[in-house]
Amino acid sequence: MVQWTEFERNTIQDIFAKMDYEVVGPKALARCLVVYPWTQRYFAKFGNLYNAAAIMGNPLVAKHGVTVMNGLDKAVKNMDDIKGIYAELSVLHSEKLHVDPDNFRLLADCLSVVLAAQMGTAFTADVQAAFQKFLAVAVSSLCRQYH
Amino acid sequence: MSLSAKDKGAVKSMWGKMSGKADEIGNEALSRMLVVYPQTKTYFSHWADLSPGSGPVRKHGKVIMKAVGDAVGCLDDLTGGLSALSELHAFKLRIDPANFKILAHCILVVIGAMFPGDFTPEVQLSMDKFFQNLALALAEKYR
């Protein structure tokens, strides 16, 4: 089981309590699709992804960004059993969506950049460490049911 | 994933905005890396103080960013321009190349925090490619 320090728990709860999922989700996913264009392979049905402006303005991308944040929210609310909470999601991403798990890491990196831009100096090294640890646990749990 | 003319333009432009704060960026990125990725501390066991913002960290942050600036100046031939640095990293320092990606990520996070308006997704794309190519040039002499 993952051991969380009090600082890590508080930091994660604090970050997500103050986060607007409707803003951060779309920004992070759009950024991922622009910075790592091969990730677009999973979104062929999303319509216009031809350039950065199109991606950033695409309503389906925005909607899915929010979906991703709501998925992360489940982990935030169950930090002591992210593995269990994500079992079904993991099967979905593996068996149905066929997503290469490396993409989860790419999206996680984009989330860090978006959060850094929002929080500025408040995104200290310790806060970044806690946030990235949380994302790493989420990613690892999402990978668990792959075979 | 080589640098297009557009990428090179974006890198030069972003560097133009950043270079005044290069030392601060270097310190922040290196400090951050040592905290967020503790395994990187193994390369600095010879430093008295590895805490964020310490003397050795600040000094080395400057060294790194100077090299980044030099790289911006030889975008058309990173391998050639960074040849001596590659030899240093390959034969003397022997840093596992996986760590270049880690430091690059930390630099990008710091740029994002310090220049939120300028660090658009498109700029991040070009900067990410730049650091990837820089890392490749740095690893050129490894084997």
Automatic annotation (TrEMBL), chain A:
Keywords: Heme, Iron, Metal-binding, Oxygen transport, Transport. The keyword Heme applies. This is Globin domain-containing protein. GO terms for molecular function: metal ion binding; oxygen carrier activity. It holds the Pfam family Globin. Residues 3-147 form the Globin domain. The keyword Transport applies. CDD domains: Hb-beta-like. Belongs to the globin family.
From TrEMBL, chain B:
One of its GO terms (molecular function) is oxygen carrier activity. Transmembrane segments: none annotated. Keywords: Heme, Iron, Metal-binding, Oxygen transport, Transport. InterPro entries: Globin, Globin-like_sf, Globin/Proto, Hemoglobin_a-typ, Hemoglobin_oxygen_transport, Hemoglobin_pi. Pfam families: Globin. Residues 2-143 form the Globin domain. Belongs to the globin family. This is Globin domain-containing protein.
